[in-house]
Amino acid sequence: MDSSNLLTCPFCPFSDADASFLEMHIDHCHPENGAPQTFTPDLYGLKDTRSPSPLPTDDDSTEKYVDCPHGCGETVTAAELSTHLDLHVAEGIAFDDSGVDSPHFNADSTGLDDEYDSPLDREDKLDFQGALSGGKRGQDRDWARMNNSTKLTRAKSPPRARGTDGAMRLGRAELGPHAHEKKMPSWLKHMLEKGGRTSKQTHLTTDGKLARQTTVENETDKLIPVIAKLCEQDKTVQRAFLCNPKVRHICKLSREGGFCGYRNIQMLVSYITKTQSLGHTYFPHSVPSILDIQDLIEQAWDMGFNSTGRTETGGIKGTRKFIGTPEAQALFQSLGIPCDASSLAASEGTPAHDKLYMEVASYFRSVCSLDDETKKVFQTDLPPIYFQHQGHSMTIVGFEIRDDSTANLLVFDPMFKTSPAMQRLIGTSAKCDNPVRLLKAYRRGTKYLQKYKLFELLKLTGSPDTTST
């Protein structure tokens, strides 16, 4: 993106090429009835006094964390703040008041030059059609595969003392700003115990009957069919592939903070329970809470699954420490749920994000026939993928190829809620004039991914039970 075309917020470092997005950002983050968040050194991490760390200052000095000025309760690195605020704008998109009841959604048609779906540089373009049509799984694959005897490596802070198991205690660079806390605040624990607010709604079924449905404030069902429809309507999309439509988008609660790894585990569990896949009997009522997941991970360590995680984290029960792919893998393996973890790093001139694209494309290609050249969107029954990069994790629910041969991951990001506009499209035949605007929250392209040198994936490999309904 040409920086000369960027418009900058007068109150914070946020910028975007789309004037309407900038206006929405100001409305959301700097309302007239509240004190605007001005740019100060303290706010953006030049002087970080929030760390509870008792360790020396060279422990994790490479990462500076700041509180989101939007008020969501998330703590992000200063380098990621602009992207974080941009996605807050995307999650706030709503229907125009005049078009709420119309079956045809006439969104603002202002073009977007954003960092999530912009073209690659010429030398970075990949032959995705060749990869998809050839069915090859992982040429040049030199990343490490994990099983019970191997594990992913984490980006490390400066060296520290090792435990009796040979593992080092990690710090803020790996575990977040609360890496050294003994327990989370009592108000937060109470909020997590209570969970999201539930409500009951009555709606008409396809056969004309009334049905009552319970909804949870931070959970959204039936979102993948909406994304599929928007990909179909987006003229720049050549082909799109999506996972099982029963996967639920689960996002953080307001003021919750950095529990993204847990929320991604919940999204994978939503697939397991909805499809009656192997292991669904462990979750008979609903997805496990964050506190339940902490217990399951600690139990997995007790059983010997990636047990060095306890030394590395100092234990996670009752804390806000970040978890990662090793913890997710340990949980599923301890329950007998088959999974396959991999680490993707740059090698021999191939960037890590290119390897990521090829791996995800190959994953979807393995169950799709591309003989019908007129077919644009492929809806599969594949599980979603747990996706980790430094400091954050998401759930991959799809992959798309654009007309210019560039690509995007399609993700459920637990840091952001479903926008009102997307909510209104669920279960309708509405058409959107500007699907790019609504898909922005779900796309992660090269300009986002190229900032990271290492990615981790965790795929569920168990098949649904034949008795599923």
Automatic annotation (TrEMBL):
The keyword Hydrolase applies. Keywords: Hydrolase. GO terms for molecular function: ubiquitin-like protein peptidase activity. It comes from the Eukaryota. Residues 238-458 form the UFSP1/2/DUB catalytic domain. Residues 98-167 are annotated as: Disordered. This is UFSP1/2/DUB catalytic domain-containing protein. It comes from Penicillium cataractarum.
